[in-house]
Amino acid sequence: MEKKEDVYKTVNKPSPEILYKDRKSKFYAAVYPITSEDDVKPIVEELRKKYHTANHVCYAWQLGVESPTYRANDDGEPNNSAGMPIYGQIQSFDVTNVLITVTRIFGGTKLGVGGLIQAYKTAAQMALENAKIVKKTIKAQFRLQFGYPEMDIVMRIIKQKNLNIVSQKMELDCALVISVRLSESEEVFQLFDEMQHIKITQLD
Fold first, then answer.
1. Contact at 8 Å (CB) between 57 and 44?
2. Largest CB tally within 10 Å, which of 112, 121, 123, 138?
3. Impact N-terminal domain: from which residue to which, for each copy (predicted)?
4. Mean pLDDT value of segment 47-69
């Protein structure tokens, strides 16, 4: 059975902002953790307020692991001269659930498309080098339902397999929610599924 990829790289907190300069233009770049596309707009709007003289707040983001979604935004720079070079660095560093912003304050000298691509790419790269990249594990969650007589065996397996108990309800019937590494989820599911008097269901 093929093992599922269950580790990914991301950031836990926004990186310190870095400044890259090219022919008097200033490029301020930072990396932010995001959990949905809705996180992006407030960050970009905050940067527009912070740098009210900025000409462009360009960015790229990626979300998800198995089939990631992404977006790149040039914010008025020539087509594909800003957002895609930033996104290229997200791919190069193999990170996800991140937003990288590069805020440009124009210095009076045009850089040309090639110069812009290089500047946005370099600023994004420096921001990622400055960020604290962490590895995270994707987990699957299961609900176990069983009677008191099964309590011992359930707890023994949880201990043996080093599973995490997320929540528990011990009344006439017992209900536990456990979390399992994605790569071990099928094995754990089968283990409990084969037992009598224990009901296991996967949670979304």
1. yes
2. 123
3. 23-128
4. 92
Residue type, 194: E
Gap between the Cα atoms of 58 and 23, Å rounded: 19
pLDDT at 29: 96
pLDDT at 78: 92
Is the pLDDT at 33 greater than 90? The verdict is yes
User: Which of 203, 152, 141, 157 has its CA nearest to residue 174?
Assistant: 152
Helix (H) or strand (E) holding 123: helix 112-130
Query: Nearest CA to 132 among 83, 86, 93, 82?
Result: 93
Q: Does residue 20 carry a pLDDT above 60?
A: yes
Q: Which residue has the tokens 């790229």?
A: 60
Which one of 1.20.120.1760, 3.30.230.30, 3.40.50.300, 3.30.470.10 gives the CATH number of domain 7-136? 3.30.230.30
At residue 105's C-alpha, the angle toward residues 45 and 95, to 5°, is 60
Q: Supply the pLDDT for residue 19.
A: 95
What does the buried/exposed string (b/e) look like for 87-120 if buried means 16 or more CB atoms within 10 Å of the residue's CB? bbbbeebebbbbbbbbbbbeeeeebeeeebbebb
H-run or E-run covering 41:
helix 40-50
Taking 80 as the threshold, does the pLDDT of residue 89 lie above it? yes
- Domain 138-203 sits in CATH at 3.30.70.240
7-136 shares its CATH topology with 138-203 = no
